[in-house]
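ok so i was messing around last nite and threw this chain in just to see what happens. nothing serious, just curious
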Amino acid sequence: MKKRILMLTTGGTIASLPTDEGLAPGLDGAALAELLPTGVLEHYEIDIRDILHLDSSNIQPEEWQMIARHIFDSRACYDGIVITHGTDTMAYTASVLSFMLRGIGIPVVLTGAQLPITHPLTDGLENLRTALAMAASGAAGVFLAFDRKVMLGCRAVKTRTTDFGAFESVNWPLAAAVDGKGLQIYSEAIPAGAGDSVLRDALCGKVFLIKLTPGLDPEIFDVLLQMHYRGIVIEAFGAGGLHFVRRDLIAKLYAAAQAGMTVVVSSQCLYEPSDFSLYQAGQKALAQGVIPGRDMTTEAAVTKLMWVLGQTTDPVEIRDYFSRSLAGEVSFL
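result:
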């Protein structure tokens, strides 16, 4: 029996056409499906739903909620769901869906392309084939499929702007890959389900990301407090270094925490975890109440904080959420 797949389209490069102002989404889902080889279409029963028509730079928290609701409301009718999406913010969408749809009982697979699907050298057809195969695999969770690789949605990072291998699975093995034997599922890399699926799509948009630079003025946190930001993710140096000589960033973080702001600190280094126990600066930061991001990607840290602050304002509960891996987004060594 053919697996029943729902394809949700949101725009992006894969659906783009040339315009006077450059590439812009111009194809609907039916046009995308028509370009798939007949042999691929014969393997699945595909329903198509066009829900957005955007460059992914314009996909924001409101669109994440819309996508999550479409997935949740359709989950019982399909064996899997494929989402076509622009690459620039795909890792953010994949991460936040991992939290909003915890326990989803079917594969949800995001994909896109570096070249429009109408281009004679497009990578879009191969990416769609991989996504469809993963959606039909029965491996439950949120994933990102690209360049014959499948990774956990909350571990994917866009690392290249034009190369077909645009995404990498950071600090986590691949969930699946395509080789001469077809789609190979690596079940040990797919976290166990989190119980019954419940849609929890409340988000807090007042989360700010800062990349720490030498000499950063700590007063920036006063400005963010005045703007009513509730959470900050800081990409610190190395294993989690923050300056406190002359410009006492650590003291300011303590003041921000006392004012009710949640501060998560991760590393600017893409690979391996932050470790605040190694150096004096890190231990000082922990003492002031910052939450270590460990080996989370920036995309996962930001979206997890947005999601957690959408669920609770209780500092104890917030810290508890960050002490656990909710969807495979963090390792505890």
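not much to say yet. The radius of gyration is 20 Å.
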